[in-house]
Task: structure prediction
Amino acid sequence: MTPLTLSLDIGGSHVTAGLIDAQARHVLRTARREVPHEAPLTTLLGAWADAAREAAQAHAPDVRHLGLAVPGPFDPLGGQSHMTHKFPALHGVPLRPLLREVLGPDFSPALPILFGNDADLFALGEWWASPTRPDRLIGVTLGTGLGSGFILRGQAQQSGPGVPPGGELWNAPDGSGLLEDTLSGPAITRLGEALTGRQGSAADWAQAARKGSGAAQRLWAEFGTRAAQRLAPWADAFGAEELVLGGNVSQAFDLFAPTLHLGTCRVRRSAYFELAPLLGAAALHATPLETHP
Result:
């Protein structure tokens, strides 16, 4: 029988569920529910369970584990959120027994429920589903903020040589600010205004560059240079063989890749984008967390 796992990617405005073929490392089917992070606990859990049932369908009894990609701070062993900036209803609540209850008889009552940081699981999913699976990989998501995950031989790293505290690069010092202030969607807007005096989102500047705007093309070249300067020290310190970029800004990867050089570390755009955290949550079955009740 094909080994099946189920994943949930918990976002601030929606939840996405995915049924995963764990042998082929492939997403078979997804389902999505819109639900704001401010919703009451019962509403959140109900949306998660509805998405899970739709993705699993008749295969629910065969699912071997449920993995959740959640924003931090979150205690994956205790299954409790420590977030204060979003998901107020989840704060301090043990989620495993509540999830088992709301999933009901469709799934095994002994179903292992595993949690992981969403940025870590983006990186882990890119590693797990890759045909090469390098020993050391860094995943970076460039969107409204900056997310990161450091993967060493299939395990997300929260500390150790070359790893920032908690594996988080967003708050690494960068001049008078933080790394997120330089590498994110809002950073593109600020850079565009500084270079040209004009306002525009990352998507706006990408569209302009592809239409031949020299100013927009120079903006992206400068962004690639800045990204290389900021990320190269981390890639070197960790000994990364590969750095994978996700998030909305990476949709313009072709525009800034020519100036983003990290020495011997290969840089590529995400192969899976929004599916990567689902794949990473499926990969949790191979970690020591599998034995947690």
About this structure: The domain at 131-270 is CATH 3.30.420.40 (Nucleotidyltransferase; domain 5). Confidence is low (pLDDT under 50) at residues 288-293. The helical segments are 41-56, 95-103, 118-128, 185-196, 202-210, 214-238, 253-256, 276-283.
